[in-house]
Amino acid sequence: MPDPAISIQNLTKIYPIPFKRERLTAVDDLTLSVEPGQVYGLLGPNGSGKSTTMKILLGLVPATRGQTHIFGRDSSFVESREEVGYLPENPYFYKYLTGEETLHFYGKLCGLRGEPLRRRTRELLHLVGLEDAADRRLGGYSKGMLQRIGMAQALVQEPRLLVLDEPTAGVDPAGSRDIRDLILQFKTRGITVLLCSHLLGQVQEICDRVGILHKGKLVREGELEKLIAIENQTQLIFENASPELLARFEAEAAACGARLVEKSKPHATLERFFLEVTQ
Amino acid sequence: MPPRHRFFSPGRIGAIAGNTLLELVRQKVFYFLLIFALALIGCSFFMGFLRPELQFQVMKDVSLGAMSVFTWLLAVLATAMMLPKDIEDRTLYTILAKPVPRLEYLLGKLLGVLFMLAISLGVMAVLFAATLYIKEQTTIAAALGELRQAPPEQVAEVVRNVKAATFTWSLVPGIAIIYFKAALFASLTLLISTFASSWIFTIVISVAVYLIGHLVPIARTYLLETDGSWISKAFLTLLTLMFPDLQLFNLTDDIVAGNALPPGLFFQTAGMGCFYLAIYTCLAYLMFSKKEL
Ligand SMILES: Nc1ncnc2c1ncn2[C@@H]1O[C@H](COP(=O)(O)OP(=O)(O)OP(=O)(O)O)[C@@H](O)[C@H]1O
Ligand SMILES: [Mg+2]
User: Fold this and answer.
1) A101 chain-B contacts, CB cut-off 8 A
2) What is the ipTM of this complex?
């Protein structure tokens, strides 16, 4: 049995509030594990402890109680960060570096040098679509471009695990779809992804499993399909069906004891419409 | 498969140090040197009324003093902003989320500043030597013009005197001591910035230590020669232990007067600088390793 990509056991994080006696429990006895190759969505309202959990997992913030492991290695050891790429929420990088220099810098931190580093940088710039902006300083990048360079930076050492904190925040629909496609591509390559996002539509499209945090507690957790499927209902969508045909279907269904719950014309989603217009 | 993790990697420290240096360069820190150059040129212009030997003395005195203050100021200002900026912009998260131990991050940052200080001081020293050299040549030319009738021995004597009064290699250890003092302050400022709540606070404390450091010898004399209350004695003992005696780094007066620095004194002072640098860096690491980001 291989080690889980992420294992979190009884994790609690309490922040002291300065100058007050109270304390704030950001994460409350959280236990969670993510198997290799899964795309896991961590959901929850603002302030429910998603980002805090990720920071503890990466050893950026110490846990008050409990343990976190990445591929079996304790997060408090630097080695555990070898095979993980992290994109923080609202990332800022060094404004005085160009896109290319940024990737060189993070690559060197991961022990890459010379030609392999240059090759990897070119690959990543191509992957996130920033080739044209490679020699511009990040000070002049837009929010979405920063998010993309952040993705590239997280991928620099070809990690087996990606931790993405709201990767599509502030990205336009096309960019957001690109990021979604990237994540799906990682999934086919067997990379594990832990993701948190408020765009539930997207989470639904890409995640295998989700966990919902509320006030630091894990309130629901499981396979996405099982959590949201309505077991006793089926949806059919027809094209060019005449009213008579529909009437016949309805009559037939009623005769067999099934109830028609809803009859409507599907809309093109606003996303699809937006993409059509802007392409 | 990435290469196995190295516990301590000069490559990573180098990457962080190089990046810090690049940041300082691109923030145009070196424009500071222009002010120094202007001061130097201005100084050499407005001394025409002094005797030539005295001119060299004053120039060396003023220039070394300015180099000392500029390097110190650069050390404090450049270091004070470094850590708070990385924490505020969350760039620190992205760095520490890579397999980078906190010690390496801290050392890389410090080394970047130390490089920058070395380059700045080096450029200042070259500018300084160049101004002295130009002044030397003009003075010699003027003297030769006056002494056209004089015997060759007397001319040689004058030239030798002028040369001895200008840039000599005995100035170099003095400049090195300026560097050690600035390096000590860079590490001290780094230490303060690991717990200070704002960079203004950091700068204020650094300047305070600078002032207190110059009072340490006075405190020590007081300790040794008077019998005050034990409280004041305890306080002063703490003061003399905690703060470096900065008066010891003021070796330039002798050097300006033309006396070479005794090697023993040089190594003692340099050693003390390194000692405090190491202590402050270790303390900074202790603070930083526990810090909640
Ligand atoms: N450094 C800190 N000091 C004190 N409290 C903190 C700190 N960081 C986070 N918190 C608190 O911990 C709780 C959880 O914060 P966290 O950032 O993990 O939420 P989140 O789920 O990521 O929210 P969002 O969706 O808004 O990003 C919040 O109540 C927040 O105020
Ligand atoms: Mg968050």
Assistant:
1) 22
2) 0.86
